[in-house]
Amino acid sequence: MTDVVTIVVAYPLCTPAQGDEGNALALTYRLRVRGVASRVLVVDEGPLPHADVVLVGGLDESGLPRLADLLDTGGLTERVADGAVVLGVNAGYVVLGRDFEDADGTTHPGLDLLDVSFRHGPEQTGPVVAECLLPDVPTLSAYWSHRAMAVHGPTNRPLARCTVPAHGGTEGSVAGRVVGTFLHGPVLARNPLLADTILGWVTGAPLSAASEGWAGLVRRQRIGEDAKDPSGWGGLVYSRPSLRRVLTSRRYRIGSRR
Length: 258
Fold this sequence. Notes:
The C terminus is likely disordered. The protein is globular, with a radius of gyration of 19 Å. Strand 9 and strand 10 form a beta hairpin. 28% of the residues lie in helices and 30% in strands. It is an alpha/beta fold. The longest helix is centred in the C-terminal third of the chain and has 16 residues.
């Protein structure tokens, strides 16, 4: 690792964004509280530069073949061979697998960095609580918004195991220093200790301890609320009735008389 950690956001214009820039912000912040400098490079076209971390994101409903092609010709596998850590979220996760199916049912080759294939399926949305299978990372809080269905191969190593929703099964995939997941939030902003683990791979040693701060409070609050109410409305928020409870009450129900 150099004195400045280089974080590359790869081809964000290929697919619709979903708060993906928050993952880069989370990484830079977690480095800054330890006194480590960083820089973020956004690459819209052309080859990927040297990077310590490559972030790939976006929705998985359009632009996937183009994204996969740019990552392939841009040299992502070479960056991985050079030691870069890769985090693929949603669209980024899909193109890191062996192959994927688009909305028309056409199968396209992926980067083959993860032992997962993807098939187009019904929309999966809602809050997720998942027990992370990486060491020293606590329960993850996030949400889903995707249509791809992961078909895991025999060597797949999952990132986490879902407790909400109950039918969620395993979540994500890890192969060496490559991580793929459907978890949004953004996932690293909601789960700063996962960000710390990824950065520990970059530095070659665990980072010094640092508080999760407000992100930790939000993470714990959302885990508790989503466990009570998997719809995502949370039951009680700061000891007050949730918006859903208010809006569905008789007083505020649309068309009701006061």
